[in-house]
Amino acid sequence: MAEAASAPRPVASPGFGGAVARSLWPILVGFALAYAIQMALAPMLPDFYGKLLVDIGIAIVLGVSLGIVNGFAGQFSLGHAGFMAIGGYTAAAIVYYGSIKLFGTKAIYGGSLGPGELLLLAGCIAGGLLAAAAGWLVGLPSLRLSGDYLAIVTLGFGEIVRVLLQQTDDVVVAQAKAEATDWWRLLDNLGGGLGFIGGPRYIDAKNPFWVWLVVVVVCLVAYRMKYSNRGRQLLAVRENEIAAEAMGIRTTRAKVSAFMWSAFFAGVGGGLYAHELGNSLRPADLGFQKSIDIVIIVVLGGMGSISGVCIAAVAVTLLPEVFRSFSEYRMIVYALALILMMILRPQGLLGVKELWEVEWRDVGRSIGALPAWLGRAPGRAVAWLGGVGRDLARLPARVVSVFTGRDPDDEEGDA
Amino acid sequence: MTAPALAARGLSKSFGGLKAVDALTIDVPHGALYGLIGPNGAGKTTVFNLLTGVYTPDAGTVSVGGALMTGKKPSDIARAGMVRTFQNIRLFGDLTVLDNVRIAAGVRARAGMFRSLLRTPLYLREEAEIRARSRHLLDVLGIGHRADEVAKSLPYGDQRRLEIARALATQPKVLLLDEPVAGMNTGEKQAMRGLIQLLREQFDVSILLIEHDMGLVMDICEHITVIDHGVTIAQGEPAAIQSDPAVIEAYLGVPDDLAAADQEGG
Questions:
Q1: Fewer CB atoms < 10 Å away: N or C end of chain A?
Q2: pTM
Q3: Which positions in chain A touch B167 (Cβ < 8 Å)?
């Protein structure tokens, strides 16, 4: 075939060691980065900012993971908190009951990278895997749907998880009793509506290491996914599902795969969330509202932009703190910011682009146009209010006309 | 003789009471340029949807190179070597021109998600091959200089070229072109005609062309099937088709035949 004539540029074979190094070096860099944050940055920060740093990290994990399914594959999921809850509760159960059975204590066990933290890691990964399995279960039937229908199914899924968790029994608080009970009998003791209380909190203002390691991993996975052949297939499904299918892409399989990866990292994020000091792991905290919070991060940052979602995660975590001084009004400011964003930039902060792909000249032009837009806004608002005023002024006459009975055509128009 | 590149036997499809396609039989030989024409509403696009698995036929079979395709999903039929373009262009609009082609070029890549995330040697090899092949295709189709532009920002003619490039990137045995010159001016039509002939020379592909415009098909196709209201009314070489009274009637109508005029209107 003629198109094979231009032989592909051969890739130099680096040998096994080289291949492994090329594959995993960003993880090592991430490990070093997370370690630096833990050892250098966190000790310097007051606890208030240290906790924010952890919250930002968890928000990034959740936002970027949702971005895989909402942004890359274009499937609107409203059940992300459900996956987070599955991961969180799985990790909490493994770490809490596991600590009692393995280490004989409910408290933090071992130091940095010690047995306790490794149990946390195992719990988070197990939580992620269980969440991914749930993603497969939910995705296989429902990803044949699209748009609003898929959103409704995922919303329902999140609510089912929340209600199921509310039905569970109390956490076994007495250590001796937990030790005496077989582990499979403890699977239902997840705290019910009160929440899973009492587990060791490995993550706090001074210990952000695991959160930021996961941040690096999730960003790396999302980045490599987006710029790979498989990832482009997801983007193709988002752009035009019919054309994607016609080009030979197995669209349902691609969507389910995206859903599972997204769920996996949501589960890991949930596991981290469950072990952060100051968080309560209650079904009510991981309901619909939480899903919406994560959706907002993705929508603000840009559906399909990893760096955009990271920026939005930082902003959405910091904004409420900035406005805490007039906290009664902060939700209003928050909502207004969202409305403004939807009017001015419905594709989100960065759209589908990454930070390094943005053409800054265009950004300058948009910002330059902003004052003019704002200048026109009062005029438009006045015109709109004028329209409302006119309608109100006409209202009495309309009400009267209903009773006096004008000709039927007019009445139909008024109704 | 080997099996034809594409064979449809007795293909039928009804929507409610309407027979959209009725017992269509076509054989596209290897390397052929085959035309399927008919007036508006004749059922041409329904034929494409039947061939590519978007619709399941009520009766009849479709086979590509002898392998039965009936009942398979569109993605599996594309993987088996029959791929289409769309009359109403369906590009991956927000992606670059290169990415549009790369997506199609990578559809049979073996590296799965795990290998992609780990960037294993197999993945890197495939990715380099996909990129080189896509660039080459864009150059052949004359849109190589637009590789980094966003697909939806291309001019109309180039969007059609990109659709063809994307289809070719899947390395098809059979290429289905759905009205490739629809909405084009005379100059663009000439260019597209040259391009279609170039495809035959450069790629080992059989082409089935749906057209509403008689002129193009008469000029470049060596076999033609004419359908009207789903029924095959003529089949043969361009010269024979041109003088076929049934074809002339379908296209121009017969003034004193009120029933035919009615059907045209519907």
A1: C
A2: 0.86
A3: 247
